[in-house]
Amino acid sequence: MAHLLAGKTAVITGGTTGIGRAIALSFISHGANVTVNHLDLPSDAPHLASLLSEAEALRASDPQAGVLSHLPGDVRDPKTSTELVSFAVAQGGTGRLDVCVSNAGICTFAEFLDMDGDLFANTVRTNLDGAFYFVQAAARQMARGQSPPGGSIIGMSSISALVGGARQTHYTPTKAGITSLMQSTACALGGYGIRCNALLPGTIRTQLNDEDLKDEKKRAYMEGRIPLGRTGVPKDMAGPAVFLACDELSGYVTGAQLLVDGGLYVNLQ
């Protein structure tokens, strides 16, 4: 296969499970050296171990595949992003940061009228504040820490940025914020050759919504609304992420919103 990201250095927050994990493995298969961030909770250990094993297997089968490294940290703390970017640059071996994917996020479904302030605050701090700190740290490296400047920043938004969700009133505003952040940073950073784009997944089955989709009637209803006839899987997000990361494929794409939803959004109209 073509190695579209050969020699590139990439960093991904929330990279041991779900969409982040799928993107990390795809980047590695395309030749990028990837650093992933995680919280280092006891529950993270098996996911990290299996990710490291898969990355090693990719490397064993393809010597041109990239290398995986990891660093724990909470994206709600601005220091985490600064340390993560520095670590990723050191691990990459080129003195550059080429790609960053702001993926870390949480979503706990809750009734609006009964929601407490702590859930709202924690969701905003993780999904939006954390993304801002990480994107800013990555952009500082891409703009001022390397010559020539440049890079690709990908913010993980959601179809929820475009439509309402009765039990997601604390979550949907954060994803709209990610989309807006990518639009504004595209304007702010274009002069440095830094491209900023948002990926908007539809219903992708991950640990965030697995419990919700165990409801057979709800899953059948959702699949009935999706023109391609199925809910997505994390791997469905990997190709679009590679596209946005690769200058040869998307070098004139910035400030864009790429829906990856099986056609759900257009069928909701």
UniProtKB/TrEMBL annotation:
<dbReference type="InterPro" id="IPR002347">
    <property type="entry name" value="SDR_fam"/>
</dbReference>
<protein>
    <submittedName>
        <fullName>Related to short-chain alcohol dehydrogenase</fullName>
    </submittedName>
</protein>
<dbReference type="InterPro" id="IPR036291">
    <property type="entry name" value="NAD(P)-bd_dom_sf"/>
</dbReference>
<dbReference type="Pfam" id="PF13561">
    <property type="entry name" value="adh_short_C2"/>
</dbReference>
<dbReference type="GO" id="GO:0006633">
    <property type="term" value="P:fatty acid biosynthetic process"/>
</dbReference>
<dbReference type="GO" id="GO:0019301">
    <property type="term" value="P:rhamnose catabolic process"/>
</dbReference>
<comment type="similarity">
    <text>Belongs to the short-chain dehydrogenases/reductases (SDR) family.</text>
</comment>
<keyword id="KW-0521">NADP</keyword>
<dbReference type="GO" id="GO:0016616">
    <property type="term" value="F:oxidoreductase activity, acting on the CH-OH group of donors, NAD or NADP as acceptor"/>
</dbReference>
<dbReference type="GO" id="GO:0048038">
    <property type="term" value="F:quinone binding"/>
</dbReference>
<keyword id="KW-0684">Rhamnose metabolism</keyword>
<keyword id="KW-0560">Oxidoreductase</keyword>
